[in-house]
Amino acid sequence: MEKVSPDCPYPGCFFCVMKEGNPSKRRASILKFFRELPSQDDDGQVLPISGLWNTAMAHPNDPEFIELGIFECMAALIWKGLKNRRWLSHDQNIYIPYYAAHIIGSYTMNMEEFAESAVHAGVIPPLVELLRGRLTWVEQRVAVRALGHLATYPSTFPTVASHAEILELSIQLAMSSLEIVYSHFYQYFDRRLSYHCDLLTRGMGGVEMESRKAEEWASQLQCWSLQLINCFAFKPEFLPAICKPEFLAKLPGMWGGLVNENSPAGIGLLRTICHHKLGRGPVASCPGLIEALCNIARSSDDWQYMAIDCLLWLLQDPSTCHKVIDKAVPTLIDIAEITNLGDHKKLGDSIVNVLQDCIQLQGTVRSSPSNRSKEQIEELLNSRQRLKWEKNMLKEDLHIKQAAALVVKLEGNSLFSAGNISGAASKYSEALALCPMRSKKERVVLFSNRAQCHLLMQQPLAAISDATRALCLHNPLNRHAKSLWRRAQAYDMLGLAKESLLDAILFINECSQSNDPDLSLRQNKVPDYAERLVKKQMRAAWLFREAAIKHGGVHGEGNSGNIYGHETDDSEWETASESDIGNDGRDEMGDEDDDSEWKNEDERKDKYDKPPMKGKPLYFIARLMLTTAFFISGGCSVMCACLFVGLLNIIVVQTRSMDAMCSLPKTNPEYGRKEQTFINVNWLWFMSCRIFSTS
């Protein structure tokens, strides 16, 4: 006779069985419970199933219930819900198929032997029926989760693959899952099924919480579908079914979003496809796919390395190299300064080696890159050779080169302040040619400054290139705040919302963690300009954006749950340089070695309207005094000379207000010659320093 708790009215209650102290009796009672539960029609069946769900979530590696037939019980309950709609609609039985599929997925998540038991128990056919959408998207989500776990193991994958419809259903679900969740749940508040709301929020929260959880579950439904497809992609025989152009083209846009950031999603599947020769051909031939991979490779995405792997494998394959080389080369050159990225050690060297091989294989017409690509690769190889030469140079020579770069950079800053953006960009390029390759901090600033110039000249691609180079040179990687902000703006100009959003979020994060008082956010307040850009890009990258455009906006309760359902005009958001200008007029987001800032239109107009300077009297007087003293003293150390150079050029910048007193009319014809004289004197002085230092 089974022992029943005096407070429990149900004989054989599962919770009473679990309290049995005798292990053998307890096991026998649990075994009996699992065998009899599917055939019972009593009320309250959802309670023990809910308890089993909690147990499976908390102890997925516990073998007790596996040995006693829990998989057979759960499979039978799913079949019962599919075939007996009267039973399904009775009491709270509507929850049972969801819980049953979730329990199967939890117990097969970590242990291969549990997965084998589940397959032998016949769980795959009922899970496939749920995957078809025989019930609702909520059950589809847990079914694809369970099937994804079963497909992970070598011993159980063949059984999963024997159901040919699983792959096709997963592909369709990956492409349509967001639209399904939006149109069947998210869009209409008053049509939401109550049991869906309960499962999403566990009885906590209202409409807004339901909407947020629905977005998270929709992302999981898509990502878990991609994970299941990824298991098939490891087998070459399934690649033709996966590599359909309409599916491949959508993969880069399938990402976990901010709510499911731990999933590689579409880029993870693309990496698996590109790992095999049969997959690389369709990827290389898919319109727009290589450009999307390049954007991810030059972004702050956690899965950046996967896009880089795809590009490198495509270049290493002779059959695809000629199709992608001209698109991939600029991106790979921009990130060639990366040292380590996650588990990838010396990634930059790997990139250089692959590009060098592409040049060496140019004898074959099919693999020959364009002249522009050849020039870019040769420039990269020359820079690597230059780095080797610098290792053998005297420190004094390197200091002179560094000081020369500083002089030219300050000239660029002066031109930028005067409104000559193109001239400033040229000066930064000149400074980069002078700056030693090992002076990474200085090169970061120069690339970032030049990126700002490209932004002002409406050249977003060039701005992305320079900002990316600055971020790759910076230590730690992808953490230079100003470059992040500039690249975020450039991506916004190109309409790449996801990439812009990730950079903007990292920019805010870097500012909040910085010890630099100029970079740190005052009182931990997010700058208004950054907040506006993040909101704008979150609307543009909203998970349900395409579905909302297709099916219409959200309806019900004043559209309170439509977080991104409406557009606001944020086209006039400020830049990092426009906001928080201090009383001294300097941008508080600046740093001491990065002087070029993006002022607003009124400030730039004032700069353009300023009359040109007649000359630089203090500068030339100081330069003459220093040079005379240098010759009289018989020469000083090169290091002191370098310091004087920087000091004197800073004097030029700081004394502009004094020079304004002796300015000529705006139509001064001698302005160009005087600027050139300023440059020539710089170089003559450097040469004199060099002669005396070696004499």
UniProtKB/TrEMBL annotation:
Superkingdom in the source lineage: Eukaryota
Record key words, sorted: Coiled coil, Membrane, Transmembrane, Transmembrane helix
InterPro entries: ARM-like (IPR011989), ARM-type_fold (IPR016024), ARM_7 (IPR058868), TPR-like_helical_dom_sf (IPR011990)
Stretches the record annotates as Disordered: 559-610
Coiled-coil residue spans: 370-397
Biased amino acid composition, Basic and acidic residues: 597-610
ARM repeat N-terminal plant domain: residues covered: 7-244
TM spans (from-to): 618-651
PANTHER family registered for this protein in UniProt: ARM-REPEAT/TETRATRICOPEPTIDE REPEAT (TPR)-LIKE PROTEIN, ARM-REPEAT_TETRATRICOPEPTIDE REPEAT (TPR)-LIKE PROTEIN
Protein name: ARM repeat N-terminal plant domain-containing protein
Native source species: Citrus x changshan-huyou
Organism classification: Eukaryota, Viridiplantae, Streptophyta, Embryophyta, Tracheophyta
